[in-house]
């Protein structure tokens, strides 16, 4: 009997037992649905976060002090001047700025607020892509040089501190200092950053240093001219700083790309773990298929006997039952893929993730369902094929 | 046509072996109509299974239509069953889910006959047994006699060398039984070789020759002297 005939016979067999076939499929449907849901969500989440990270920090890197070396720490390990020199001498670097941040209390005429205060240079505003001036302006290189006591507030912070009043030109207090507000800004927040509820404000780092008894810089933020220049740029920065300060292994640099890669590795592992857990239900479904196929073989013993008496070879019977189980699994797989994609789309919609179609997981799901059909169908099919025709014909 | 020589077969039951056939020899010529009789346990069913290539003898030879089949492998036996043997069973053994036409097509599916050829030959075979009207009926919609006629059509459709009928009238009322015997006699008249197993003498007497089994050997092999001829009733086709 050729394949097409076996296929038709198998479909008839499934159709003749609609209820049982669909119950068998259910196990596969649930298994494939969970695998597809997990992998699609995993991939979707990963894509979304990667896109966000790209937007916020393409080609950027941070430079900081390694706390674990034997070199002694000093306040001038990183200086504003170092950043200035580096931005001039390294062709791989587009921008590099010194950066300090601290949480402070800032007082306006209406209210006092907790503020996440950043101190940096005017280049920072050119380097980043997520902040936009709302009113007034960012500070510029003159503000840097003259160490002016000016501040740029997040727009919402301005509203808190000043209410309906226009904050531009007004003053805010921070400890003993009085700062002139020269601008407000809005910021596109990182989508998945749940914690950042504190408002932000920026002052020129030159001014910030005048307030410190021993001026220090926490980190440098840099941006390479292109993707390929990130690593050389980081190398040059480390080399320059080590030579200038005569300290070995004291400086570290980390690119955004490295963070993204690390994150991807983590989510990849998580997705894999969840897929394996979901895969267990698929195996359970497969056992269900085997169970039902065994019942089916017993129930159709006589049919098998008749077919054998009429000239069916072992192979014909084997193929017939194998195709049956594969078809059941494939149909279950198809429905499972549709359900899985549907559920993933629904969750993505509510979790505000971009919709994703993971072709990989669809192909894997189909591969898996046919593999399960063959693996769990083989034993019953072989049992059917090996039946003795005389016994089978006598079976009531 | 069919030549069996020194056939033996025994089955293991626990520690002891139970001999069923103790050296059976038989020659059946082309076109013969032979009835095999014997009480239950006489070995006639086992002998039928051997003739039908459903089982292999322990010793002895079996030539069927020029082929030595006693030493063939499973796969080759399946081929011989498909090509050389037509089975008619007591309990019809039709596929319950399939129509008459599909049931008759089945042996040709295993012979890789093309779809259109299959349809043509199955239709002809069903016409031959008077069931052209019932082609698309399923077994549950047919009477016992009609089911057996579908089975006969199925048995003949691959043009086998012999037709093996195992108690073909056993599950039928006497009138349907006579109809089936009439059909066998008609097929015999057309030149089909028929071997019929039965335990009823009046059924066996429709054949030309009666072979009687007892305790695993043939005790009698004789021509039928008072042969019965079944006349198909007129209302056979319309039921």
Describe this structure in words.
The complex is a heterodimer of chains A (about 400) and B (about 240). Chain A has 2 domains: about 5-55 and about 260-395, no CATH class; about 65-250, no CATH class. Chain A is about 60% helix and about 20% strand. Chain A is built from 13 helices and 10 strands. Chain A has helices at about 5-15, 20-55, 80-90, 125, 140-145, 155-160, 205-210, 230-245, 255-300, 300-310, 315-350, 360-385, 390-395, and strands at about 60-65, 95-105, 110-120, 130-135, 150-155, 170-175, 175-185, 200-205, 220-225, 250-255. In chain A, strands 1, 2, 3, 4, 5, 6, 7, 8, 9 and 10 form a 10-stranded mixed sheet that branches. Chain B is an alpha/beta fold and about 240 residues long. Chain B has one domain (about 1-225): Rossmann fold (3-Layer(aba) Sandwich), CATH 3.40.50.300. Chain B is about 30% helix and about 25% strand. Chain B has helices at about 45-50, 75-85, 100-110, 115-130, 145-155, 175-190, 200-205; strands at about 1-15, 15-30, 35, 60-65, 65-70, 85-90, 160-165, 195, 210-215, 215-225. In chain B, the strands form 2 sheets. In chain B, strands 6-7-8-3-9-10 form a 6-stranded mixed sheet, sandwiched between helices. In chain B, a hairpin with a 2-residue loop joins strand 1 (about 1-15) and strand 2 (about 15-30). The interface between A and B is medium-sized, with 22 and 26 residues.
């Amino acid at each position: 009997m050729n394949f097409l005939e076996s296929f038709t016979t198998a479909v008839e067999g499934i159709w003749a037992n609609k209820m049982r076939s669909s119950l068998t499929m259910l196990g596969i449907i649930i298994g494939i649905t969970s695998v597809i849901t997990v992998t699609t969500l995993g991939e979707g989440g990963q894509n979304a976060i990667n896109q966000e990270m790209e937007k916020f920090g393409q080609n950027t890197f941070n430079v900081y002090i390694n706390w674990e070396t034997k070199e002694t720490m000093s306040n001038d390990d990183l200086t504003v001047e170092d950043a200035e020199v580096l931005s001039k001498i390294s062709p791989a670097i587009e921008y590099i700025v010194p950066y300090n941040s601290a949480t402070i209390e800032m007082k306006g005429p209406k209210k006092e607020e907790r503020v996440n205060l950043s101190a940096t240079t005017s280049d920072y505003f050119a380097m980043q892509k997520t902040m936009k001036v709302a009113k007034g302006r960012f500070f510029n290189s003159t503000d840097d040089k003259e160490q002016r006591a000016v501040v740029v507030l997040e727009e919402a912070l301005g509203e808190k501190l000043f209410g309906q009043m226009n904050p531009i030109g007004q003053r805010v207090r921070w400890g003993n200092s009085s700062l002139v507000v020269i601008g407000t800004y809005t910021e596109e927040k990182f989508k998945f950053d749940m914690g950042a509820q504190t408002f932000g404000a920026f002052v020129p780092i030159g001014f910030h240093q005048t307030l410190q008894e021993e001026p220090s810089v926490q980190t440098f933020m840099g941006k390479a001219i292109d993707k390929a220049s990130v690593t050389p740029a980081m190398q040059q920065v480390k080399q320059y700083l080590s030579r200038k300060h005569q300290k070995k292994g004291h400086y570290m640099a980390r690119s955004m790309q490295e963070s993204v890669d690390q994150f991807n590795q983590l989510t990849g592992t998580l997705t894999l773990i969840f897929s394996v857990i979901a895969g267990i239900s698929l195996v359970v479904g497969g056992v269900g298929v085997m169970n039902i196929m065994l019942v089916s073989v017993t129930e159709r013993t006589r049919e098998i006997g008749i077919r054998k008496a009429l000239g069916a070879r072992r192979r014909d019977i084997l193929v017939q039952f194998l195709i049956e189980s594969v078809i059941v699994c494939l149909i279950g797989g198809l429905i499972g893929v549709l359900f899985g994609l549907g559920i993933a789309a629904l969750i993505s919609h509510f979790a505000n993730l971009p919709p994703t179609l993971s072709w990989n997981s669809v192909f894997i799901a189909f591969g898996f369902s046919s593999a399960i059909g063959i693996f769990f169908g083989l034993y019953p099919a072989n049992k059917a094929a090996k039946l003795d025709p005389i016994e089978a014909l006598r079976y009531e | 046509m069919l030549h069996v020589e020194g056939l033996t077969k025994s089955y293991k039951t626990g520690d002891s072996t139970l001999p069923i056939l103790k050296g059976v020899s038989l020659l059946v010529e082309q076109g013969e109509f032979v009835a095999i009789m014997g009480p239950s346990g006489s070995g006639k069913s086992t002998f039928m299974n051997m003739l039908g290539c459903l089982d292999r003898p322990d010793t002895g030879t079996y030539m069927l239509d020029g082929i030595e089949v006693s030493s063939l492998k499973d796969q080759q036996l399946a081929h011989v069953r498909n090509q050389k043997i037509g089975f008619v069973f007591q309990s019809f053994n039709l596929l319950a889910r399939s129509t008459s036409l599909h049931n008759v097509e089945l042996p040709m599916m295993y012979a890789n006959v093309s779809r259109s050829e299959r349809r043509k030959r199955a239709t002809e075979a069903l016409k031959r047994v008077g069931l052209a009207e019932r082609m698309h009926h399923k077994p549950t919609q047919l009477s016992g006699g009609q089911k057996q006629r579908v089975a006969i059509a199925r048995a003949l459709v691959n043009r086998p060398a012999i037709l093996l009928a195992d108690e073909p009238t056993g599950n039928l009322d006497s009138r349907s039984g006579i109809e089936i015997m009439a059909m066998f006699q008609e097929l015999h008249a057309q030149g089909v070789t028929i071997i019929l197993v039965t335990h009823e003498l009046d059924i066996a007497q429709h054949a030309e020759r009666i072979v009687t089994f007892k305790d695993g050997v043939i005790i009698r092999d004789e021509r039928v002297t008072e042969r019965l001829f079944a006349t198909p009733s007129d209302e056979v086709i319309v039921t």
